[in-house]
Design goal:
CATH architecture of the largest domain: 2-Layer Sandwich
Number of strands: 11
Order of helices and strands: EEEHEHHHEEEHHHHHEEHEE
Number of domains: 2
CATH topology of the largest domain: Ribosomal Protein S5, domain 2
Radius of gyration: 20 Å
Length: 306
């Protein structure tokens, strides 16, 4: 008897990129792996990684897996799910988006559901609540996500110049997305709104052109980072260390606490070491991850087993 084991590989993502609050995100070459195998009945979840995740039916991977079958009113099969975690949880690197995309793509492949890419996108957004992580996790690259007045989503890929490198400095403390949202202001001034719009436009042109002088200005933000930096111990110290080491700018990755530095590719190691060193001076352990843009997004590999 030939049995199929479906493997889904999903990239980490970084959202906001400074001024692009809730509307822009990019996929990164750091991956979670999900393997699905049909079993006679029930649910079995195993995982490898330093973070603890649920092994019951409230697991986000399984919830997304079930949602794909429910959309077509098909029964959910028994399934064994093996998860390899490389994207740290609650650090602002899109771990929940990897789970949602992993579950949806796993169900689509294992169940031969033939869901269209647009349908998968809409399911992912509904499960996540916003598009800036799940869209690049599915499609790869850097994606601008805009909602029209009728509620429809428009997704626009943003070119990313090869001379723009990234390094993520990941501290050993977590920050919940809920806490990072609750601290945000309920309204902003017209001046800050204009600042945000103009800087997002400059950010997109900076990413396309690779212009470091533009990028140094474009990465500034007044909508979410001034409030959120108060939740991240050592933010200003780490930011200053990165800039002194040659970074173009430092932003909060997603809701944080990971800080993302933009720099020339050859400067990533030096910038990362400076950021980690700054946190260590505050008795906070951290890890630097030099990263490239993932341009493929979530992908499926079918393994046949006898």
């Amino acid at each position: 008897m030939v049995r199929e084991r479906v493997e889904v590989i999903v990239p980490a993502t970084t959202a906001n990129l400074g001024p692009g609050f809730d509307c822009i995100g990019a996929a990164l070459e750091l991956y979670n792996h999900f393997q699905f195998r049909e079993i006679p009945t029930g649910l079995s979840i195993h995982y490898r990684g330093s973070d603890h995740i649920s092994q019951s039916k409230d697991n986000l991977v399984y919830r997304a897996f079930c949602r794909a079958f429910e959309l077509l009113s098909k029964p959910v099969p028994g399934v064994e799910i093996e998860i390899t975690l490389n994207v740290p949880l609650a650090r602002g690197l899109g771990s929940s988006a990897t789970a949602i995309v992993g579950g949806l793509l796993g169900a689509n492949a294992l169940g031969s559901l033939n869901l269209a890419p647009e349908t998968l996108l809409q399911l992912a957004i509904a499960l996540e609540g916003h598009p800036d992580n799940v869209v690049p996790a599915l499609q790869g690259g850097c994606q601008l996500c805009v909602q029209g007045q009728q509620g429809q989503w428009v997704f626009c890929p943003v070119d990313w110049h090869e001379r723009i490198g990234l390094v993520a400095a990941v501290p050993n403390f977590k920050l919940s997305t809920q806490a990072a949202r609750e601290i945000l202001p309920k309204s902003v001034s017209l001046a800050d709104a204009v600042f945000s719009v103009s800087h997002l436009g400059l950010l997109i042109r900076s990413l396309q052109s690779g212009r470091a002088d533009w990028l140094k200005v474009a990465l500034q933000d007044r909508l979410h980072q001034p409030a959120r930096m108060e939740l991240i111990t050592g933010f200003k110290t780490v930011q200053a260390a990165a800039l002194a080491a040659g970074a173009y700018g430092v932003v909060i990755s997603g809701a944080g606490p990971t800080l993302l530095a933009f720099c020339a590719p050859e400067e990533r190691e030096r910038v990362g070491c400076a950021m980690v060193g700054a946190w260590e001076q505050l008795d906070i352990e951290a890890e630097a991850k030099p990263l490239n843009l993932d341009r493929q997004g979530g992908r499926v590999v079918i393994h046949s087993q006898i």
